Amino acid sequence: MCGRYVSPEGTEIRPGDLAPVITSAGAEKLLWGIPFSGGKLIINARSETAADKPMFAHAMRAGRCMIEVSSFFEWDKRKQQHVYTAAHKEKLYLAAIYTLCNDGKKHFTVLTREATDDAQKVHPRMPCFLPNAEYRHLWLNDSEIAPHLLAEHVPLTISPVPRESEQTSLFEP
Fold first, then answer.
1. pLDDT tens-digit series, residues 86-109
2. Does residue 127 sit within a domain?
3. Which domain holds residue 94?
4. Burial classification of residue 125, based on how many CB atoms lie within 10 Å of its CB (0-12 exposed, 13-18 middle, 19 or more buried)
5. Whether the predicted model's global pTM rises above the 0.90 cut
6. Spatial distance between the Cα atoms of 126 and 65, rounded to a whole number of angstroms
7. Residue 1 and residue 75: Cα distance in Å, rounded?
8. Can you give the CATH number for the domain in which 31 is found?
């Protein structure tokens, strides 16, 4: 889920990229994907269980961040690419967590939840959204309330990307 997104400036962000995020300290650039054994990157974490997983527990308490995006992409079972945007045409804010890794750099992963009915047609998971300024402030600054903010629904527009417009350089699922 959420294997690529576009920043508000129009930059395509892929796993492994250095990307702008917002932490309680302000704007920072972090690497997308927490390194795992075998060189794999963990780019998404299930919000329902992240606080209980040793890999994510500390980040859920003390490393919450958010990513500002204009859109994100998902592929269905037929490998058809779909673009997700906010129905109200504003930016989306994705809940994420970060940690300092063995390479001495901060890495983040996007938190996901079960997809809403409309998004379920493409993929069973979707990012957790922070729909307004109050939610964003609480997510970054209140570790008691933060885990309870992750089920909020944001109206989305989901459109298939015509196959002829998909570029060969695009991330493949």
1. 998 889 999 999 999 999 999 999
2. yes
3. 4-165
4. middle
5. yes
6. 17
7. 8
8. 3.90.1680.10
